[in-house]
Amino acid sequence: MGAELRLTVLGSATPYPLPGNPCSGYLVSAGGTRLWLDAGTGSLGELRRHTRLDQLDGIWLSHLHADHSADLLTAYYGALSAEIRLTRPIPLFEPPGTADRLAHFLTNGPERSPVESAFAITELHDGHTARVGELTLTTAAVEHGMPAFAVRIEGGGRSLTYSGDTAPCAKLTALAQNCDVLLCEADSDTETPVHHTPEDAGETARRAGAGRLVVTHVGPFVTPEDAVARAVTRFPGPVEYADPGRSFTIQ
């Protein structure tokens, strides 16, 4: 069977962090493997409760909105200018163009900031696959009005699918097919072309045949309790909320 697959919620707020709840960030682990999934505002501090940057096996980013990626900036300083010493750059799986945008923001003089000294860059594309320690990652392009991706993570004989930010779409449903847990955004109160409503999250989980639904990235006009209650109307399985600090065993 292998090592137990676990999901720890570092933060699930949007569009900016709340007291006690950073923006989107998650730690996925199996055995000794640790993957930082999205690096939203404030999530790095919570990540440090569980692991150090030099103990990460990889970082995976769904898209470049700040509430999913902003803490890469401070991670760069932490990796190169703090108490840790990297033995190698941290593998970073990212939407195309991330490295140059990161370097542009961090560069303060005539020399480009050496972001590649901190991160070993792999650009994502639809259908991309990677092995990170004990985890297998499969990426699909999704619909968010910009380059954006979802990921299926498999380890220990179990599977977790993370939607990133997206409208309901066939590629997410296919990626999540028969997964044990679907971690799905429920940002929107009404239908939009770039986000799920809670009902949409339930419908995507139902169509995919997911074993369990965890709603996350719940928008500011919907309470977590309401998001769960609304998702339940479309999905017959267990539905829970991604409370910051909570850990889920994928089973």
Automatic annotation (TrEMBL):
Keywords of the record: Hydrolase
GO molecular function terms noted in the UniProt entry: 3'-tRNA processing endoribonuclease activity
UniProt superkingdom: Bacteria
UniProt KW Hydrolase keyword: yes
The Metallo-beta-lactamase domain, residue ranges: 22-212
Gene3D superfamilies to which the protein is assigned, alphabetical: Ribonuclease Z/Hydroxyacylglutathione hydrolase-like
InterPro entries: Metallo-B-lactamas, RibonucZ/Hydroxyglut_hydro
Name this protein carries in UniProt: MBL fold metallo-hydrolase
Organism name: Amycolatopsis albispora
